[in-house]
Design goal:
By secondary structure, the protein is α+β, with helices and mostly antiparallel strands. Among the domains are: 54 residues, RNA-binding S4 domain (Structural Genomics Hypothetical 15.5 Kd Protein In mrcA-pckA Intergenic Region, Chain A, Roll); 80 residues, Pseudouridine synthase I, catalytic domain, N-terminal subdomain (Alpha-Beta Plaits, 2-Layer Sandwich), CATH 3.30.70.580; 77 residues, 2-Layer Sandwich (Alpha-Beta Plaits), CATH 3.30.70. Helix content is 18%, strand content 23%. Strands 7, 10, 11, 12, 15, 16, 17, 18 and 19 form a 9-stranded mixed β-sheet that branches. A 4-stranded antiparallel β-sheet has the order 3-2-5-6, with no helix packed on it. Strands 1-4 form a two-stranded antiparallel sheet. β2 and β3 form a beta hairpin.
Length: 325
């Protein structure tokens, strides 16, 4: 057996043989798998790890500029269907504002109608946002031609000695004097009130709403407090509650009752008509004289925080409620 340093017949030098000195029969070092770790020169095993080869790198990415000037922001944030910007003339307004001023819906809802193609200007459909129109343009909204005047809705708590009529001479003043400073729009009263009737009276330039609440078959309820010259008999109260016929027309009464903590001559009456003459005729039919009529509620509107002789504009929600009746 060749030993360390012995030369073989073919001229090669044999590697040294490591003898097993473990007498306990354990495994020899030669039975262990060879390590793939690189060794130092001279045959010693290195304890340090070899450096890994560098990963191949591609071309460098260009840096994205996340900061924009205001001019650049205006270019990048262009909305869909947005009309090209141009100089606004004095007599022009945005189409959505024109629609909102007509009282049909809000500006936000108008934008939805415009985008869906339901708005025409001078017969041509318009879908661009920010479109400008003039006051003399003809705007058709969902099949209805609009008027550019903003709709106004004013609620008055009418005092005595004012009337809605224009032909009662100089003794009694017209109710328009009480709301003259509220708006420059041409408004009118919804329904009629004589000089002795007090309470809620609605004014508007919305002709559709005036027509709606003056029709005989309109659906909104009004509540009146009626003062009589004597106590109302219970049997007469029951007859009124069942309805009656006046001048050949059937009058439906939703509710009639005595007012709590008041004399029996103070009556609460709820019905749908806006004609105060009908209220007076109901009690005169049973031979009662009406001293005062006060309208305390009109289509869901009340006199809360509205003293006698004062007025206020309706809120947006109140206007929506009236239109949905």
């Amino acid at each position: 057996m060749p030993i360390e340093g012995q030369v073989c017949p073919n001229g090669d030098t044999k590697l040294p043989i490591i003898m097993n000195t473990n007498r306990g029969g354990g495994r020899t070092n030669s039975s262990r798998p060879n390590s793939n770790k690189p060794t130092r020169a001279g045959g010693e095993r290195s304890g340090a790890k070899a450096a890994l080869p560098k990963r191949a790198q591609g071309p460098k990415k260009a840096k994205v500029n996340t900061k924009f000037t205001p001019a650049e922001m205006a270019k990048t944030e262009k909305k869909p269907n947005q009309a090209p910007k141009r100089i606004k003339e004095k007599d022009e307004i945005r189409l959505n504002k024109y629609i909102a001023n007509s009282g049909v819906c809000s500006r936000r809802d108008a934008d939805i109608y415009i985008q869906s193609g339901n708005v025409k200007v001078n017969g041509v459909p318009v879908t661009e946002m920010g479109y400008l129109v003039k006051l003399n343009d003809v705007v058709n909204f969902d099949g209805v031609t609009l008027t550019p005047e903003k709709k106004e809705y004013i609620l008055l708590n009418k005092p005595k000695n004012f009337t809605t009529a224009l032909d009662e001479g100089q003794e009694y003043r017209n109710v328009l004097e009480l709301v003259r400073g509220a708006t420059t729009a041409k408004i009118g009263a919804v329904g009629r009130m004589d000089k002795n009737t007090t309470g809620l009276l609605l004014f508007t330039n919305d002709t559709d709403m005036i027509r709606k609440f003056t029709l005989p078959n309109q659906k909104s309820s009004k509540i009146y407090q009626v003062s009589l010259d004597k106590n109302l008999k219970f049997e007469d109260l029951e007859k009124i509650s069942k309805g009656l016929v006046l001048d050949g027309h059937r009058v439906f009464v939703e509710e009639v009752s005595y007012i709590d903590n008041e004399p029996k001559s103070e009556i609460g009456l709820k019905l749908r008509t806006a004609n105060v003459k009908v209220v007076r005729s109901i009690f005169e039919h049973f031979e009662y004289n009406v001293l005062r009529i006060d309208r305390v509620a009109f289509a869901g509107l009340t006199k809360k925080n509205l003293p006698r002789g004062n007025w206020r504009f309706l809120t947006d929600q109140e206007i929506i409620n009236l239109k949905n009746i």
